[in-house]
Amino acid sequence: MTYHTLLFILVATAAMTAVMARNLLLSAIMLALVSVGASLILFDFQAPWAAVFELSVCAGLITVLFVSAVSLIRNEEGKVKDLRARFYAMPLVIAIVAVATWFYGIPFFDSLKNCALSGGRNNSLGSILWDIRRFDLLGQVSILAAGVFVINSIFPRRKKQK
Amino acid sequence: MTTSLLAYLLIPLFTAILIPFAARKRQKLADILATVTLLAGLINIGAILFNPANIANSFAGVPEDGFALLMIFVIYLVALCVTFFSAYFIGEDSKVNRVPYYSLIMTSVAAMCGIVIAGDFFTLYIFVEVLAVTSFAMITSDDSAKGLEGAIKYFLLTFPASLLILFGIAFLMLTAGTFSFENIKIIIASGMPVGPVVFAVSLILLGFLIKSGVVPFHTWTPDAYEGAYAPVSAYLAGIVTKISGVYAVIKISIMFRLFEIRAYHTADILMFLGMLSIAVGALAALRQKEFKRMLAFSSISQIGYIILAAGMGTPLAILGAIFHLVNHATFKTVLFLNSASLEKGAGTSDMRKLGGMEHSMPWTSWTSIVALLSTAGVPPLSGFWSKLIIIIALWDGGAKTYAVLALLFSVVTLAYFLIMQKNIFFGKPTEASRNAREVRPAMLAPVVVMCLLIVALGVFFPYIYAYLVETIAARIIL
Amino acid sequence: MINSFTLDWFFITLIFSAGLYCMLVSRNLLRQFIGLEIMSKSCLLAVISVGSVTGNLALAQALIITMIVIEVVVVAVGLSLLVKNYRLTNSIDIWSLNNLRG
Q1: Which of B165, B158, B160, B190 has the alpha carbon at shortest distance from B176?
Q2: pTM of the full predicted structure?
Q3: Is it true that domain C4-91 has CATH number 3.30.230.10?
């Protein structure tokens, strides 16, 4: 319980740091920390497969993508005039949201928990993926195909000019 | 998920993967492959829909959802027109790379079929994401800065909307334990406390309303349509944004019928947003100077009619919404393809630079007239019947103010289209239009076919109405 | 005493609002993507929390794996749009995206 709450606090803090960081590289690394925290939470929820996916794909691959994008646009970073005051106001806004959620959200979530149906079917992940959600795998195939075509279309291989 | 319709998804996906290998040496092979696949699918689905034996026994032999079948027909039809058109539109010197372009079109056809045959909200969500991802690349396929801008604006609005849908799915999993359409209907009918379920479905509904470009969230639509590569904007406006947003809204509203009075306020808000889109879209279209941008606002206004009818939620209104969705796909495709022809023939689609185009481009001019009269709802064209059904359903359902307003804004539609027609096609020829030439007959063929379809849907309306009643309206009430 | 589920959702709301705030405030396109990513992380946590409380963990895992695959493709596509836009216009400011007006 305490470990669980600490993990959530870690994720929330990392998310806020990622938003407030002045340096884009630091933001990208904080985003990776958010992913690692989320992955630990998944482990804590007894969901190892999802956690491994999250750790390898989100904390690994997406961070690499973000860091390479940051390094590609490195010299542009200073030119965008973000209003820093707005970012410094962020802890205040989040605190207001936290207080509001504490008073109004928590009774709502409690009432949601009461109407939760426990449909505890003891299926293994494999049987769910293959039998019940088979159509989703088709969706995964098509989104991967779409991703390949999109990258191919946005960055075409240059034809050799004669 | 409907297993018997799975082939309509798998075959385009297979073609999409085949195209890069087959067309590596000869680029022309890409458009032949795409066109042949779509034509075969269209003939196949047409054989089910227009089979005399099926019509005779009032579609009792068609077990599938009539809505899904009709939508697959429209998807294949619009995609075929667009691929055939762009096979001739893409010139030798153009920056568009044929192979990924056709692969993307085929993938998006597969994704749209996936959306239509999906049986639960999560599958729907996956295919909506596939469709969104492919449409960004199609918008930017001619490498222009405008296209990129439209794509980025679309991106920044559509993915927060997807997150709303995901939160809705999480709530559904919590409160209903399932997210398949059938089970949700059963849970609502069983008289359990439906408040949280309505909340979850409303979140999903909000996400899809953002994706379909209803008025408070409409800012991305004109930008994306104007910036997109010309044939792609016909594809987007005709079918892609309709399937990714409006289709799900209609599907949910069919479910809301079971909520009856308990979901009354959600339905009220839906109707209000629909009326707002009709008004804002029509009034904004009146003062546009760019042809494609005006068509985009007109598209927002027409979506408003569909949303208004979906919010009404009576079987007749839903029937009108579905029929208007089909009609919108036909006439908007014609108008956007004509704007692409104008760009090819005269070099611009800016209304201030054009005039008197009817002499140089007579076919384009006449097909535009047919499509715009249908949009404005002039009998006996197809748009008249769908608007008539919607207005009658509104009047019957007790929303008399909305019915009168919908009728009035239909006149505004006619007004802005007549202004457009006068500026572009009639009047004195300008510098740009004197040098213009009619596009090749092959590029006119899809537009002419669509126009014939508009007239046919209007003239043979009793058959269409019978189909809609037998396969959709009669099966809504379980 | 607050139960675990309610506390989860309290933090999920906070993480979501942090991402939303980032998207609303920043003019930098890359920062917008970071905000989007944070929001989708909160969504993922919501699904697993719901799966745990309803005893449907296997289903929740199946959903999360699909969501992660989609997320990767979406981020890759978004970043490639950004890099291409940067090459064409030399800017990642969303306020410079104002060529389309009417």
Answers
A1: B190
A2: 0.92
A3: no
d(CA A121, CA A149): 39
Interface membership of B160 toward C (CB under 8 Å):
yes
pLDDT at B478 over 60: no
Name the band, by pLDDT with cuts 50, 70 and 90, for residue A34: very high
Q: Is the pLDDT of residue B458 over 90?
A: no
Residues 6+ apart with CB under 8 A from A148: none
Distance CA C63, CA B193 (A): 26
Residue type at B140 in one-letter notation:
T
The CB density around residue B388, as the number of other CB atoms within 10 Å, is 16
Q: Indicate the pLDDT class of residue B191, thresholds 50, 70 and 90.
A: low
Among chain A residues, CA nearest to B96: A153
Cβ A149 vs Cβ B13: under 8 Å: no
C28 DSSP β-pair partners = C93
Nearest partner of B245 among B206, B212, B202, judged by Cα: B212
pLDDT tens per residue, range B27-36: 788 888 889 9
- What is the average pLDDT across A58-86? 78
Chains A and C: how many Cβ contacts under 8 Å?
227
- Per-residue confidence (pLDDT) for residue A161, from 0 to 100: 42
Q: Is C23 left (phi over 0), alpha (psi -120 to 50) or beta?
A: alpha
What is the domain extent for residue B430? 3-476
The answer, yes or no, to whether ipTM is higher than 0.90 is yes
Interchain contact A115–B (C-beta under 8 A):
yes
B61/B48 Cα distance (integer angstroms): 10
Tell me the residues of chain B between 210 and 239 that have a Cβ less than 8 Å away from chain C: 222-223, 226-227
Residue-wise pLDDT tens digits, C46-95: 999 888 888 778 888 888 999 999 999 999 999 998 888 888 877 777 76
Average the pLDDT over each of A78-87, B45-54, B138-147, B201-210 and give the range with the smallest value: A78-87
Please check whether residue B177 touches A, CB under 8 A.
yes
- Count Cβ atoms within 10 A of the Cβ of residue B458 and give its class: 0-12 exposed, 13-18 middle, 19 or more buried: buried
DSSP B104: H
A120: number of Cβ within 10 Å: 11
Query: pLDDT grade, residue B325 (50/70/90)?
Result: very high
Extents of the domains making up chain A: 1-75, 127-156
Q: How many domains does chain B have?
A: 1
Domain boundaries defined on chain C? 4-91
B22: CB partners within 8 A, 6+ apart: B29, B30, B33
Counted residue by residue, chain C has a size of 102
Q: Is C18 on the interface with B (CB under 8 A)?
A: no
CB atoms within 10 A of CB A99: 10
Core vs surface per residue A1-10: b (16+ CB within 10 A) or e: eeeeeebbeb
Please check the confidence at residue C2 and state whether its pLDDT lies above 80.
Answer: no
Q: Do A80 and C34 make contact, defined as CB atoms within 8 angstroms?
A: no
